Amino acid sequence: MELSRPSFDALHTPQRILLAPGPTNLPPAVSQALIAPLLGHMDPAFLQIMDETKALLRYVFQTTNELTIALPATGGAGMEAAIANVIEPGDRAVIIVAGVFGERMAEIAGRCGADVDRIEVEWGRAAELEAIESALQRKAKVVGLVHGETSTGVEQPLAGIAQVAHDHEALFLVDTVATLGGVAVPVDALGIDVCYSGGQKCLSAPPGLSPITFSTQAVESIKGRRQKVQSWYLDVSLLEQYWTETGARVYHHTAPVLMVYALREACRLVAEEGLEARVARHARCASALRTGLQAMGLQVFAQEPYRLDTVTGVLVPEGVNDAAVRGRLLEEFGIEIAGGLGAYRGRMWRVGMMGYSCSEANVLLFLAALGKILNEEGYRNGGGVEAATVALR
Ligand SMILES: *Cc1c(COP(=O)(O)O)cnc(C)c1O
Q1: How far apart are the C-alpha atoms of 386 and 368, rounded to whole Å?
Q2: Between β-strands 171-175 and 142-146, what pairing exists: parallel, antiparallel or unpaired?
Q3: Which homologous superfamily does the CATH classification assign to the domain defined by 275-392?
Q4: Residue ranges of the alpha helices (H) in the chain?
Q5: Cα–Cα nearest to 15, from 260, 372, 333
Q6: Cα separation of 134 and 154, whole Å?
Q7: Cβ of residue 80 lying under 6 Å from some atom of ligand 1
Q8: Which residue among 3, 136, 267, 364 is least enclosed by CB atoms within 10 Å?
């Protein structure tokens, strides 16, 4: 017997102002790309779009790395691919764990058979260079860390780490899912060997692709593996043969063609704005947001001077119900922000200022909406918008 036939209205999605740490609102050019005619994944016209996307990704990552591609999945796949390609069972991996995403990196390294050496960092803080250097006194294959820790709103400083890693013959692996396109990530200048990101955060593409880049040293290391990468789908040596600009293309997977169009457009907009201007926009909006929140008496979670511009974690004030406030922001203003993760579930709000969602208008609108709701929920406050306005002068 046939199951009963479902009957729904045609798809309807509400308009939202997306201020969680991803996804963000889409720039019109990116939305347009998603309704462009579909091409086959081996069509020369599409292959050219892939080549352009690679060139744009190299600009966004500030790298000349040949192996620079977009994995056909979200940022988490970037993390899996980065670790799985570099680590072989028994390799030692030094991983900085300063929040949920560092924790996930350590977990993935463990699943890949690494002997994981965790550098534990209190939430809200960043790791010290000395701690990394001392962990490297024992030989390690890789030092891995998260640049923008989305669960805490902390930016981990990257300067100097590559030098220390390379002095000890370790590769430097960095998660820039929450930072690429919002905070400067000059991959070559920083000496990063493996760097991945996600489309839906500061690049403002839809979720579904994960840009990733490998240095010559990382590629050499992968070529010298004793065993094959355990994951066939995320083996970059195979993916490279589909994304190659020079050799004959070998089918690997049916590319998410529309997502590639969208990522191309998103990265083209980054180039059009210019990285420097884009990073300055994020810094300016984030600073105004923090100023406004603090004027309302709220406490920004991350310690100075490690506050991340693209994600602000702020503590839920005593006596205020986290879910009620976020529910009202969504219902009454169409604004989405995120709640806390791990131990901070129910105790933190995480506000994204990323890509296309990062604007002065959104800072002021969010502060006004939050201020109104908090007043009605019994948390007396005022002056958030005014303080932010002054900061934006
Ligand atoms: C969002 C995020 C991820 C995971 O990306 P998905 O696209 O959700 O798979 C990984 N690392 C960081 C720092 C993130 O913010």
Answers
A1: 10
A2: parallel
A3: Aspartate Aminotransferase, domain 1 (3.90.1150.10)
A4: 28-33, 44-61, 75-86, 100-111, 129-135, 161-167, 187-190, 216-223, 236-243, 257-273, 275-295, 322-333, 360-376, 384-391
A5: 333
A6: 22
A7: no
A8: 3
* Ligand 1 geometric centre to CA of 101 (Å): 7
Closest CA to 182 of 30, 311, 56: 311
- 3-state DSSP call for residue 69? strand
Q: Is the CB of 208 under 6 A from ligand 1?
A: no
Question: What is the third-level CATH fold of 28-272?
Answer: Aspartate Aminotransferase; domain 2 (3.40.640)
Kind and range of the H or E run holding 312: strand 311-315
pTM to 2 decimal places: 0.98
CB 112 within 8 A of CB 245: no
Q: Does the C-beta of 152 come closer than 6 Å to ligand 1?
A: no
Ligand 1 atom showing the smallest separation from residue 148 Cα? 13
Q: Where are the domains of the chain?
A: 28-272, 275-392
Atom from ligand 1 closest to the CA of residue 22: 1
Q: Which of 101, 154, 341 to mutate to test the pocket of ligand 1 (most atoms within 8 A of CB)?
A: 101
Per-residue pLDDT of the chain (393 residues; tens, 9 = 90+): 899 999 999 999 999 999 999 999 999 999 999 999 999 999 999 999 999 999 999 999 999 999 999 999 999 999 999 999 999 999 999 999 999 999 999 999 999 999 999 999 999 999 999 999 999 999 999 999 999 999 999 999 999 999 999 999 999 999 999 999 999 999 999 999 999 999 999 999 999 999 999 999 999 999 999 999 999 999 999 999 999 998 899 999 999 999 999 999 999 999 999 999 999 999 999 999 999 999 999 999 999 999 999 999 999 999 999 999 999 999 999 999 999 999 999 999 999 999 999 999 999 999 999 999 999 999 999 999 999 999 999
Distance 375 CA to ligand 1 centre (A): 33
Residue 178 Cβ inside 6 Å of ligand 1? The answer reads yes
